[in-house]
Write a structure and sequence with these properties.
Distance between the termini: 41 Å
Strand order of the largest sheet: 1-2
Order of helices and strands: EHHEHEHEHH
Strand content: 5-15%
Shape: globular
Structural class: mainly alpha
Largest sheet: 2 strands, antiparallel
């Protein structure tokens, strides 16, 4: 069909996965997208929808979701840990932040004036600093890496993944 592109082409154009494009179309978030047969067709003029704040929240709890899954994360223990935290405090220190599930839970519910996070993983802390200082720049760089990775063949992907 003239004037339309496939979900795969939109994914490449927007720098996201084809699966994400299909999800956005299914949620009626891509203007003019239609599915006449078994595949989504996206108008060539369509732009990638912006991130909705609701996407960043856990629908069942309303809490902000961590941007990364972390082995040993405290996400499953938020309620139990929260029972032992005083309600009135202004300074919070997280020595093993990981994905930050508990920290994000606290920030969703309380106004904390001072926050100190640390982790033994220096690269993880660098990500948090990049998010704090230049989230748009980080997103731009990640988009470039995503496009390179998705366009690489399987041998290149293995090399990229293993460093």
């Amino acid at each position: 069909m003239q004037g339309f592109i496939s979900a795969e082409e939109a994914a490449e154009r927007w720098g996201i996965s084809e699966k994400r494009v299909i999800a956005l179309c299914s949620e009626s978030r891509v203007s003019g997208a239609c599915m006449p047969k078994n595949a989504w067709l996206i108008p060539t003029y369509a732009e990638m929808p912006s991130v909705d704040a609701a996407e960043l929240q856990d629908r069942s709890t309303g809490r902000i979701k961590p941007f990364v899954k972390w082995a040993g994360g405290k996400g499953q223990l938020i309620e139990q840990i929260g029972e032992h935290i005083p309600h009135d405090f202004c300074r919070y220190a997280e020595p093993f932040v990981g994905g930050g599930a508990f920290l994000l839970s606290l920030l969703s519910e309380r106004d904390i004036k001072e926050i100190y996070i640390s982790d033994i993983n220096a690269e993880l802390i660098n990500v948090y600093k990049a998010i704090q200082n230049d989230v748009d720049g980080l997103i731009c760089k990640l988009s470039v890496h995503q496009k390179e990775f998705l366009s690489a063949d399987i041998e290149q992907k293995i090399f990229i993944s293993m460093g």
